[in-house]
Amino acid sequence: MSKTIEASIVVVDDEPSIRELLVASLHFAGFEVQTAASGSEAIEVIEKAQPDLIVLDVMLPDIDGFTVTRRIRQEGIDAPVLFLTARDDTQDKVMGLTVGGDDYVTKPFSLEEVVARIRAILRRTREQVEDDPIIRVGDLEINEDSHDVSRAGQSIDLSPTEYKLLRYLMDNEGRVLSKAQILDHVWQYDWGGDAAIVESYISYLRKKVDGIMVTDENGEQHKVAPLIETKRGIGYMIRAPKTVQGGLMVKEGTAAHGTGADTSVPPTVPGSGKPSKTPGKESAIRRIVRERWNAISLSTKLVTTLLVLLTIGVAGISFSIRQLVSNYLLEKVDAQIVQQANLVFQNINRLRDSDTNSSGMTSYFLQIRDTDANILTTPLKPTIAEGVVSEPILPASGTMGDVVFGEPFTTSAIVHLSGEIPSRSTLSTARAPWRVVAMRVMQNDNFVNIVFIGLPLGDSIDTISSLTRYCIMVGTAVVLLGGVLGMLVVQGTLAPLKRIEKTAAKIAAGDLKQRIPATPENTEIGSLSASLNAMLARIERSFHEQQETTDKMKRFVSDASHELRTPLAAIHGYAELYKMQRDMPGALERADESIAHIEASSSRMTVLVEDLLSLARLDEGRGIDITQQVNLTAIVKDAADDLHALDPERGITCGAVGFMPRQGDEPSRLMFELKDLPAITLHGDASRLRQVVTNIVGNIHRYTPADSPVEVSMGEVIASIGGDSLGRMPATEQSLRHFLDAVEVGQSVHVGMRYAVVRFSDHGPGVPAESRSRIFERFYTADPSRARQKGGTGLGMAIVESVVKAHHGFICACQTDGGGLTIVVVLPIAPVEIPAMSAPGGKPAKGAKQQKSGKSLFAPKSAKSAKPSKPDKPDRRGVERKP
Q1: What's the CA angle centered on 371, arms 370 and 373, to 5 degrees?
Q2: To bridge 675 with a disulfide, which of 52, 498, 591, 656 should be the other Cys (CB 3.0-4.6 Å)?
């Protein structure tokens, strides 16, 4: 009786053993299974078969599983997807579930668990009922059928992108969504611009969704409680407030509508009932002042400080001038009174009869008293215009008060009106203070009278007032002009700092290519700009290097995890499959198949582990001894023989490496010369160098057609570059060009280091230019599926580069003339021997080595041009046997 088919499943995995394992176990569990080995094949099979469920690997040869899921979802295929992969990073799991996956299982896995998860997914999808078209978060609603959006009963008009973003947030209520997740779901990675588009659309949504105005029960309008939240550095989320009163969110521990108000009483001073200053109040005030001062821009501070200083300076100067002039005029009035007192006393009648209707320096006041200070007469009283009389206030008759004879003093004025109302200017002049001096009148040396003589200070006060107004006007103009000039100077001086500030803001936003505009370095700004630019260049370089290292490390860990988990999953799975089927008929035959798969996966894992350990030792500088004497020619010859044994139909030609100098526009280059392999011996690790050529030959066998020809050549050149510098050069064609330029210099001046150059040139499909530098990356394979069929791990060429670097050498890949790939290996031999100077008489100096005539000391050795003594026969490791 045939078993009922439970569901149809498509299994997508590029590893044949994993596919066969899943097919066998799922067939045993009652599922109909179809398979695919690549992403493009998977899309075709899924579109044709319309399965009930898809088991999908992530790392596929052409397009990854995430992209496959995205494409089938765009095609409207809603079949659930179970990711079954060796990638166990959290970001990969999040990505898988975000793009449309329903479950995520990592290798190695349990077959029983996978089958149980498949059945659980199918049960959920088959029992799924039609959902309510209304999605609600608090008082926000979306009708998925009509695409209507409303909040608090008010309709909200959204664009299609805003609607998709809001629906995605509401579908994940209470969950923080990163920008990457939002971009992937809403824009589906079609957006090629800045990720800041998410922030812009979140802002749009906030204005429309959280900007709704509602009216509470008291008739007051206010905004609704915000639903969209920002988790800084993480992402965005939407959720309803915990407590809502009248549309307003009330935080825990706070009062609402007058309830639970704070009834605490501030501390009071004992016995006074007045609130006391809380501790730290003054420091809080200082902190607030300091914070506000620090919030002011530097240019504003400088201009304000300049204005304050100018105002203080102008005010000080004006006050000083006013005081100086006032004192000067007062001294002049005092001198006039004292010096002309006798003259005035003797000419009382003349002065009284003169016209004194205008107050001035000749408007004297004169009062005569007896020796007891009793007033006898006041013969002179100046009359101002309009009949106004002004006179000083003096001590009462019969007293002198505090008046000292001969010392002028200032006193107020008393004004007498004639009955008419004077003008304001006249009254102001009459009220001006007086300067008075008391003098003794002597006759025949006898004290007979006291005379008070005074002059009004109206003119002096008018002069000082005019001078004060002038100083104020000039001072104001100086302050304003100084403020404008100061602002221009400050802005011009701070303009470079503003440019630095804007550049720093762009750098802070992630644009490390920004640089500060250069200015003369003899200035402070110029010196700062130069230092900052140098620092930014180093930071950018270090950042890129660190980023590249981090990316390589992540890729290495991910690939290593995948490559190790895949055979481990096969071992675990076939062992579990055997236990599931051991009681079924034909269990013995199936056990043999399971054991064969387990053995193959175990062997593959052993090779992987050995290669990883070898790389780890080389990275640490262990596992290599470069002090041995190595016959490089024998190692290369053995590698050529091994390739011929692997591919008998392949044409393999051995020869010498020739160097063609630059000719016109043609750059210098290496070329193949049909000769015997030259004899080259150097110091190195024989077993490791054999591993180098073996891995290169293995790649040729693995990735090129068996009948495509190969040229193997080697030679010796002189280059003006040291081994340490050569070993640090990256494995790029640009570095090879740099080395060939050094060879051209070294060959012409016979100075530098002798190098062995080994070339392996095939005429296969070749490698694209953008991928040649990646050949030496760990786990990089141009064709992953073919690599697995041939047994490759993706570590062989990485080991080759590490060994060559450990020998202070250089390796790179370039295009073969006519098509194909050429691997160039450069290894140092020894420094060039400088010939000693000849002694007088034409004889070589003592200790100098003689050179045969007609032979160039720097000519590369070859089997025809150089006939060395017969060497001891080398063994297969390339190490000469010593007698």
Answers
A1: 65
A2: 656
Same domain, 58 and 121: yes
Distances (CA, A) of 619 to 303, 340, 454, 800, 842: 61, 112, 109, 12, 53
Distance CA 229, CA 177 (A): 11
What is the SS3 assignment for 170-193? HHCCCCCECHHHHHHHHHCCCCCC
DSSP, collapsed to helix, strand or coil, labels residue 249 as strand
Expressed as residue numbers, the domain containing 567 is 524-606
Beta-carbon contacts of residue 860 (< 8 Å; ≥ 6 apart): 656, 678, 715, 716, 717
Helix (H, G, I), strand (E, B) or coil at 406: coil
Strand partners, 199: none
How many CB atoms are located within 10 Å of the residue 72 CB?
Answer: 20
Which residues sit opposite 453 in a β-bridge?
Answer: 366, 437
List the CATH number of the domain containing 22. Answer: 3.40.50.2300
Q: Which amino acid is at 822?
A: T
Name the pLDDT band for 682 (thresholds 50, 70, 90).
very high
Alpha helices per DSSP H over 662-795:
686-703, 723-727, 733-749, 769-772, 784-790
> What is the separation of C-alpha 719 from the centre of its chain, rounded to a whole number of angstroms?
42
| Mean pLDDT, rounded, for 853-857 | 33
Q: Please say whether the beta carbons of 16 and 25 come within 8 A.
A: no
Asked whether residue 35 is assigned to any structural domain, the reply reads: yes
Element (H, E) at 639: helix 632-646
Sort 161 into a burial class: Cβ within 10 Å, 0-12 / 13-18 / 19+: middle
Higher pLDDT, 142 or 855: 142
Strand 221-223, strand 228-231: pairing: unpaired
Read off the pLDDT of each residue in 584-612 and give the average, rounded to a whole number: 68
pTM for the model: 0.43
Residues 674, 863: Cα–Cα separation, whole Å: 12
| DSSP conformational letter for 732 | S
Joined together, the tokens standing for residue 484 give 């404008």
Q: How sure is the predictor about 261, in pLDDT bands with cuts at 50, 70 and 90?
A: very low
The chain-wide mean pLDDT, for the chain, equals: 79
Domain final residue pick, 785, 810, 831: 831
Q: How far apart are CA 744 and CA 668, in angstroms?
A: 7
| Residue 322, CB-side half-sphere exposure with 13 Å CA sphere | 17
